[in-house]
Amino acid sequence: MSVAHILKYYREEIVEISQKDAAYQLNILPSTLSNYENGRRQLPIDILRKMKDIYKIDHDTFMAIVLYETTNKEVIKEAKYEIVQKVMKAEDQEIIDFLRENPLLLNEIRSMSQLPANKLNNSIDMFIGLMRVAKIHAK
């Protein structure tokens, strides 16, 4: 599996951003990114660096992707699992940081967690509804 194909998989399955969004963030045309991902064009080092940052790939994983091209499906499967775990940890940390920066929200969530199960589900539904309304009005 080539570096280009691994990065395409990473963008689609791990980071879950469209080719158009990724191209915009990389400051290139979507057709150019398509050519990179399909191996029709060589990936320049500056684009590789930007991909590492935009796709939030840690240094060790990135080096493994760039330096180790393999066709061993078991190795790829294990690497994919590790990548997913690292991305999930990074996303969890972002949520934790957000809650720490917003103590009122954190306290509300803490108090909700103490509710009995029957009231908890209703509270969660109402909370999600309020968040959706707030998001609409924030636009």
TrEMBL record:
Q: Which residues form the HTH cro/C1-type domain?
A: 7-62
**A single GO molecular function term of this UniProt record:** DNA binding
Where are the membrane-spanning stretches? Answer: none
- Its signal peptide is none
InterPro entries given for it? Answer: Cro/C1-type_HTH, Lambda_DNA-bd_dom_sf
Which SMART domains does the UniProt entry name for this protein?
HTH_XRE (SM00530)
The family database entries (CDD domains) matched by this protein are listed as: HTH_XRE
What name does UniProt use for this protein?
Answer: HTH cro/C1-type domain-containing protein
Its source organism is Jeotgalibacillus malaysiensis
